[in-house]
Amino acid sequence: MSRARDLADLAGSADAGGLTGKNFIINGAMQLAQRGTVTSVTDGYGGPDRFKFNRAGACAVTLSKDSDAPTGSGFTASLKVDVTTADSSLAAADSAVILQQIEAQNLQRIKKGTSSAESLTLSFWIKSSVTGTYIVELFEHDNNRHINKSYTISSANTWEFKTITFPGDTTGVIANDNGAGIQVAWWLMAGATYNPDGGTLQTSWGALNQTGRAVGQVNAVNSTSNEIYITGVQLEMGQAATPFEHEDISVTTLKCFRYYEAADSGNTVGFVGNVTAGVNYHIAYKHAVEMNHTPDYTYASAAASNFGTSATFQISGVNGTNLYQAATGTANGAYYLGYITADAEL
Length: 346
Hints:
With 346 residues, the chain is mostly beta strands. It is built from two helices and 20 strands. It has a seven-stranded antiparallel beta sheet, with no helix packed on it. It has a six-stranded antiparallel beta sheet with strand order 1-4-5-13-7-10, covered by helices on one side. β2 and β3 form a beta hairpin. It is globular and about 60 Å long.
């Protein structure tokens, strides 16, 4: 059997005997997309949960969940990055990445900063309209350390499976808290600050070295015809990729809810009944899971009666159980229904 077939079988097969919870990446199969399609993204989320686009420079993208996935892989969805504003003339500090932040307390088992630090292997499927050298980076926040590896996209608009192994880092302990521990970043473009002529890629763990972050990176956002797709993302301990850990959508959903809980009919809050005019009322709303930190909220009204145009909701309370206070009612029997979005991304 060819190595290419071996890799395809590895990437597409179900987890047989692997450790449950081995994948540090959340939503790597791109199943959940609470935000839906988001256009004109320059620094933010869209499409599949937990994956963020960030850029410095002129480019902008549309992020969406797409049904395009490698045939026979077992995956049914991907993150699609559609370049809608190109950046073809790069300033030195220009950059574009897709990233996911991994919570620090979920990384304690890699024993970073000790003599027993574990190697990490990243595997994923990717398809791009631009061939050439790409860079993927692990950046560790607490100690400002990073390591960068290159991979090659050989054929345009063709799904390719990649595995990249990073050695363990014996320097710099990751705090056991709810902050960002390691950022996994797929570079899509890099100006001379990160990709200097004659530069050397930072292929071993070390202090942040801007000039070594993306040496050799092609510009995959230089045309509005460009599209990048990614799926099957797994980061695990060890020096080799193992079969992707497929999990029930219910498990993925709860993991994502720790960082973002969308405003939809499933998150309706409201009350109805014998409300007395001139009195404020409260209702309790419990998040599906405890969020990473006290979230930023947005509120959308769905229906109201007897609250008038001045009706508002004020948010109080603590993470996990939050109180939503309706403005003073104008008549007995008032009700107010609405939707909450809670954002606690790292």
